[in-house]
Amino acid sequence: MVVYRYVTPDGETADPVEASDDRETPDTTEAPDDPGTGNQTTVSNDFTVHDGLIPIQALRVGDCFTNVSQAPPPAASISETLATSGPTVSRVPCDQPHERELYHGIEFPAGPYPGDEQLQAEVSDQCSVEFQNYVGVAPAESALIVSYIWPDRTYWQQGIRLAGCALHNASGLELTGSMRSSQR
Asked: Residue 74: which of 155, 164, 154 has the closest Cα?
């Protein structure tokens, strides 16, 4: 849910695959998930659409989407989300039935990894505040549920410091139409 695109401090979209010599190259890096086992996670900034599916990091605020496989937990790190739901979603027009809507993206500044608990708490706080700004009611008064993802250590160390907030129907039914200013 997040973030899902690269944004510069001035709010402009940055191209995550630019090489220093102006030649575009895919940015794929392997980083250890578990120092004890040496298991590797491939971190990729490939935003290519394949068979109507898009990588989750290509979603933008206001995009409506449906998970291709099972939905991720309501609060999960990027690695947990990818393991549960896979790396792609089906972006659909909001006026068609869909499971979720991305309503806020967060980009953290460079620096040492603050830890899962601190990141999760900060993302949770920002998602709650921004939910009310986007939907028009507080999460506790809504028929919608907040879900969010945050960068874990693997992604943080690769420069991916994006988090995202999405909403979905508490009843489990699909949504139709954007939930922006819906007061649901």
From this structure: 164
In a domain, 161, yes or no: yes
Work out how many domains the chain is built from and give that number.
1
Question: Using CA atoms, how far apart are residues 120 and 110, in angstroms rounded to an integer?
Answer: 17
DSSP, residue by residue, 58-126: G--TT-EEEESSSPPPSEEEHHHHHHHH-SEEEEE-TTS-BSEEEEEEEEPPSSS---HHHHHHHHHHH
pLDDT tens digits for range 88-103: 999 999 999 999 999 9
The residue range of the domain holding 70 is: 28-169
pTM for the structure as a whole: 0.71
Judge contact between 163 and 150, C-beta under 8 A: yes
CA atoms within 13 A on the CB side of 99: 15
Give φ, ψ of 119 to 5 degrees.
-65, -45
- 160 within domain boundaries: yes
